[in-house]
Each structure stands twice: as structure tokens, then as C-alpha cells.
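Notebook, bench 3.
Goal today: get a predicted structure for Vitamin B12-dependent ribonucleotide reductase from Aeromicrobium camelliae so we can plan the truncation constructs. The sequence was checked against the plasmid map this morning, with no discrepancies at the termini. Length recorded as 966 residues. Pasting the sequence as submitted so the record is complete.
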Amino acid sequence: MTETVSNSRASRGGAGARKGAKKGLSIQRVYTTEGVHPYDEVTWERRDVVQTNWKTGENVFEQRGVEFPDFWSVNASTIVTTKYFRGAVGSDQRETSLKQLLDRVVLTYVKAGKEHGYFATDADAEIFEHELTYMLLHQVFSFNSPVWFNVGTSSPQQVSACFILAVDDSMDSILNWYREEGLIFKGGSGAGLNLSRIRSSKELLRSSGGTASGPVSFMRGADASAGTIKSGGATRRAAKMVVLDVDHPDIVEFVETKEREEEKIRVLRDAGFDMDLGGSDITSVQYQNANNSVRVNDAFMEAVENGTEFGLTARTTGEVIETIDARELWGKMAKAAWACADPGIQYDSTINDWHTTPESGRITASNPCSEYMHLDNSSCNLASLNLLKFLNDDGTFAVEKFVKSVELIITAMDISITFADFPTEAIGDTTRKFRQLGIGYANLGALLMASGLAYDSDGGRALAAAITSLMTGTSYRRSAELAGIVGPYEGYAKNAEPHQRVMRKHLAANDDIKTKHAMDIAVQKEATKQWAENLKIGETNGWRNAQASVLAPTGTIGFMMDCDTTGIEPDFSLVKFKKLVGGGSLQVVNQTIPVALKKLGYTGETIEAIVEYIAEHGHVIDAPGLRPEHYEVFDCAVGERAIKPMGHVRMMAACQPFLSGAISKTVNLPETATVDDIADIYFQGWKLGLKALAVYRDNCKVGQPLSDAKAKSKDADKPAETEVKTVVVEKPIRRRLPKKRQSITTSFSVGGAEGYMTSGAHENGDLGELFLKLGKQGSTLAGVMDAFSIAVSIGLQYGVPLETFVTKFTNLKFEPAGLTDDSDVRMAQSIMDYVFRRLALDYLDFDTRSALGIYSAEERQRYLDTGSYEPVEGDGTTAAELVSDEPKADPQVAKQVEAESDVASAKVQVESARPAPSTAHTSAELLEEITGGAIDSPLCMTCGTKMRPAGSCHVCEGCGSTSGCS
């Protein structure tokens, strides 16, 4: 897409070369056609955007007749209209078309690029305009939200979403911290800072000799300020990060601060106060507006590993004033994170080892989502690529197109710094001197699935690492070329050696990628070329940017690009909530799934059957025709086959060596996770070379408004004022089997282990007893199985439904597992899994089994032949159709789905689409409806719908609001 002019040394040269002939970038067309504007190549349509708060029924936004391409989803057009169109709604100044939005931004970039000498000719500038417009129009990438908010308007031209502040050990600096943070919050962005320069509460004041307050006390004032600004104008909580070094004398108080507040929330909730996020009483609790992180260095981590003591140092003198047991402090950090998800961890030694400008200062903090890490009083503007746009029809990755796209995006991002405004003079000065950029991507999870690769697999990690390496290598190569045209960043001369050293570290890490398939081999090969060229050009020119890449949450802009997955995340769920033009909604199976199935070798009716099964159950377990070894390709963030926590950590570790900054991601753990589990994950993050890591254990926080169940429980818990009730507790009665009863004896083999099962029934055919025979008489296994059989038999006789046992014991995983000799249950994850599937087939009615997803071989064959598991009636109507009370899919609705879907998967989507449950308003709520499980996410403060995770934040599918920085 772009290349430097090569008719002079200006294309590669240093300061002397730039005095030569014509210089600037020569732009080549990749996406566009000469003489045809990108707008003229698409079909445009008018839509009405109306947003309703489903809880109150009130319209929160309405703009009719907005113009978008016909291939943009309703969600994308809704979020862009509500979030990014400028001007008062109803006024003549209000934007009404995507064309106006794109022109406002793109033409500002082109004008600045021409003024500052980025283009060789006006013709090159025009090609740049068309290519940038095409890529944004076709959702190939997106700038971060502040660009869409501010560029081309009368507002300050703020383009950065991420800020790092600084605070020193003085009251003037602390009060200035409050002020600067407030200005950033007011503009809708987030900021982070390190409080470790503030003396501890164990040190003395210079002026009076009294004891200092310590940083934690000053956090209280900043927290209150953030909460006030949020409630005074924003519709989301302020996004902020507070960091403290592990050797600070107040580190224990800092670690336990939010844990204590969380306990206070529980006490107040139990006393009847409204402690939900956004509740009327939550503001009485402190420290709820910030993410907290501890900066740990290698010395501390080695002390944890070796079980030795660690010194806490005074801020004023640098002397060790206290020694602590490193493992004890590590345990406190893990315990606090287990209780309330704070603090996260930032690995200071790793961060600064990859620092390109250490001569200008250490990296001490990050932005609120932990992906931007650089100098104090600095900022970073972000842009993210939609990786699925680079998947060719033949299943290969469009390497050359990806390289050209990155070139153009990096050029545009650097141009933005030439005209950008900043919230403080110090931030503006640092950003213009170091020109930090943050290119990243979204839809990695969808790309891996479409390529037939599991997220938690060596192949998946190899492709992710190769793409990340190619992206950053190309970015720095373009940055080096820009340095030869418009000069390196101002701080480069002072940091030339360390910058080159970090480039060599990236190159070495690229060489260590263990490629697995032709796809990642091709990507890694090109990445190697880009890194080598980058170093060659950079050694002569220097680099235009001190930082090039991060992996951001991509919450709102992910919806703008119609991405299935955000940032580095896997797919959230296999079934999606889809809004339709003209109103209404459908639940549809993720469009990536048919592509993945085709990639894995499935065809025709088998793909349709699997998709239909996923639409019904929300997972792939026991999907007809799907081989169990392919289950992992469809593993998601939540649900029946949720990716294990370390699967997320390993993916982060695969990509981290190829990023200038870090990764915004929270590792989710089940509610049953232990303190030791969290301690181990944090420790493994250090061992694997991450820069930062955060965790969240389901239901660890009270302040997560999941539903109105709390209000109901309050009413339910109120005692009647006058009525006295007598509660009679009935004892269960054991229903013994007759002396003579019918029984079934089944021999079975699971993964090569053989056994016998005998089941006895009551007169009415209900199961009443179970005997299992495994192993030799007198062995431990035989004894355990005898005891288990007795326990199940007694439970059945006391009235425990067989359905309950089946629910609990199917899908239980342990060895032996694998193939069975039973045609109805071909694969089993354990002996228990087999036994209770067999019992379900023998004793449960069809409807009950169908709800559990358990079918016989005959029923599965019938489904492939007729589309129904039930017997076909003489008139051709299935039993399921006769008894179903679900509404039939509207033909017009199906037509809309087909129009909005990719051609390759339209047929499958139409067949699997069905009206979404009336209680579901987002994919998170839909998944809860299908699986019966709960998704631990907050409700959107704007429209009331349930949000879903996006990096370390949450994002609303209804209106695009985020719980943190976007």
C-alpha cells in the first residue's frame, strides 16, 4: 500500500539525506480502484436507530434515517450512531451518515499529512485518503474511540485513550494529581499512575516531624473525585489504575485495602443497603473506582520462589526499614485477589527489560487496562485490525495485504500526533517527544476457530504469536522509514542503543516461534523479513516512534467492526444475540462455526446438524457427527467447555514478546478456585514473561448487578408482621424395591477398561438400584464402586430423580476415558459419564433425555435423515412440531438474517436462526437462557442490559458503553 520514494537517499537516509530531492511516502493502491471512490462501490441504506432501556421501557436514544452500508450490522450502526455521530440530536448540525463521520476523520488526517510532509505528491495523498476510507468503511480496522469523538470537531483534537500520570512526594503534586485525573475523566478517558514516590505512613514529615499519611490515604480522595465526576456527567465508572511498588513500606495496607472494603460491602448488603454497582449506597464504600496493581520485581519473585525475606525501603532515604516474609506477602496478594479481584500484578523487571527509552526514565505505571506502559506523563493512541478480514477463502492468511494495511495504519496514527491536543502540557510534551503508538488487533479468537485451531493449543498460540510478530515488526519498519522522511522521535538520540537492543530482542523471540502449520509458517517467514529490514533501516534512520504496539480491549470499536471476539480473547460463546433491521432479534450460531467445520473436513448435512445442535444447546458436546477430538476448536470463554485459566495465560505469553506494551486481559477463574490457584497463576505469569496479569474469580464481588433478584430476596426475607406460620418438615420416605424385580445387566468397555452394570427397577419401571462391577474382587476400586452403587441406590429409593444423577455425573472427566463398545454412546469422558448416559437411555423418557442432549444412535441417524430426533408421523409432521409451544421463525426474519450473513454461511444460519428469548437482550443473557448458568458481569448503566467481558473491562452489546477505557 505504501512505500518510500527510492529516487534519493531520503527514502532511507538520515538527517543529511533529508536535504536531498523530493521526499515523502509513495502510496500504492491495494483495496481501491483509480477513479472510483470507495463510497460508490457499496450499497447504502437508511435505518432508524432507537435504543430502549428494557428495564424502564423508556427510549434512551432515537435518531431516524441514518445512512449505513447494507452489510453493516444493526449493532454496529447503532453504536456508531449513538457514540460517534456529533452534533445535537434533532439539529441540522447532527451527523446522519457514516460518510460524514469517515470524511470528518479521514480528511483531517490527510490534511495534516500533507502539511507535515508525509506524502511525496498530492496524488499519493489522495490514494492515502481512499485507502484509509475503504479500510474503515469495510471494517478492516478502527481507530480508538477518542478519534471518533473529537477529530474534525470544534472540540480539542484528543486522539489518545490511554494516559499515564505522575505524582511526587509533595502536597502540591498530590493535589495536581487530583486535578489532572479529573480532566482526563471528564474527557471520557482513563489514567494510571504509580504512588510509590509518596512516603509511607511509617516515615516522618520534613516540616513538622509528624508521621506521614501514606499513599493509601491519598487514594481515598482520588477515589471520591473519580466517583463524583462519573456521576456528574459520564455514564460509566471512571477508569483509573493505581500502582504501588512491592518494596513500599505500606504495601500490605495497599494489598488489603479493597479486600477490607469488599467485606464491608457484604456486611452492608446483608443489612439491607443497596450495594450493587451504581446502587444508592455503594458510594459510601471507598476505593471502588480504581483497579489496583502491585509492581513486583525479579528480586521479590526470587524471594517468593526461594522462601526468603524481602526488604521494604523508605521513600525518603532508600534504607530498608522493615523485612517481611516474601511468601507471606505473596499469599496476602493472592488472598486479596481471590476475595475481590484486586490487586493485579505488574512484572516490573520484565517491563523495563523491554523498555526502548530507559535513558529518559523508567516505566513505573500503566493505563487502567494495563496494555499501555511507558514514561510518566505520556499518552498513547490506539488502532485495532480486524484479523478475520485477512482470512482468504482458501483458508490462508493474506500476509501481503496485512503488511500493507499495517503500513498505512501506522502512518495515519503517527500523523495524528502532529495535530493532537492533550489534557495537560506535560503529557503533550512527552507524547510529542516519544510519539507512542498502540496498533493491535481484534477477532483473534474467531480467526483461530475459522482456521480449525483451538485457542488453547500449540497451533493456536503459534499463529497468534506469528501474527503479533508480523504486526509489530512491520510497524517498526514503517516507523524507521518515517524517521528517514520526517525525522526520528526527539528522544531517540539519547536512547539509540537501548532502542536497538529491544528491536534485537523482538527479532530473537520471532526466531523462537515454534511453527506448526503452513499458515503460521508463512506468517512467521514474513515477520522474520520485516524484523530484519526494520533493524537495517532503523540503524541508519532511527525510529519515528518509541512504541508501536499493544493489545487493547477493543470493546466499543470491536462492535463497530462487527467482530465476534475482542482483543486477544477467545470467543465468548457459540450462540450470538443478533438485532435485526426494523426491530426484533434472533439467536444465531456464530458465523465462524460453519467455516471452521468446513476447514475441519465436514460437509453439507453434517455441518447443518452440528450448527442446529449448537443453536439448541449452546455447546458442541455430543453434537451429531462431530468428532470429540474437534471439540477443543469450539471452546469458549464461558460455558460447558470453558477454556482453563492457564490456557488464557499461555496465549498471553505467546504474544507478549512481540508487543511494545502489554495485553489488556483478565484471566477468569471459576468460583471454586482457591487462593493457591491464583497464587500459582500469578507466579506462572512471571515465569512465562508477561508484563501484567489480572484475575477475576466468579462471584467474588458483591457489586455486580446481575438482576433484580436482590430486591426480590429482600421482600422474601421480610417476616410477616402479624401472621405466624407453622412449618411442617416432612421426612423423606424410602421406597424399597420388591423381592422380585426386573433388571438389566450391561457389559461395557470404556477406553479399554471393562465392567458390568446391573440396574433394577420398580413395578412402574422407575430405576431403583444400581450395581457396578469393576476390577478384581477385594480390590480398592471394587470396594469404591460398591460403595458408590449403594449410595446411588439409596438416593434413588428416597426419591432423588434419576435426571439429577444424570445431570451431575455426565461429562465428568477422568481416566479411563475414550471409545466404548456401545453403539448408543460411542465416546465417554469417564466410566461415570458412560454409566449415567446408559441409564438415561434405558430409563428416562425422550423429552427428558432431549433436554439433557442424550440421544440413541437410532435417534441421531433419524435427525440426519429427517431433521428431527423424534419418530416421523404419517402426515409428515414431527412430534416435536406437534407439542412445541415455541413460535415459528418469521420468514421475513429469516430473510433478514440471510441478507446480513456471509454468503458462505447464509444457508446454515437461516436454518439455525430462531427468535431470541424475550428475556435476553445480549449474548451474555442469551447464553444464560440456553445453559441455565450465570454470567458474572455488570448491567449497563446506560440501557440496563447485561454486559460481557472485553479485555479487562466489560462492554454493552446494546449501546456500546464500557465499564472502563475503550
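The chain has a mean pLDDT of 85. The two ends are 28 Å apart (CA to CA).
Flagging this for group meeting.
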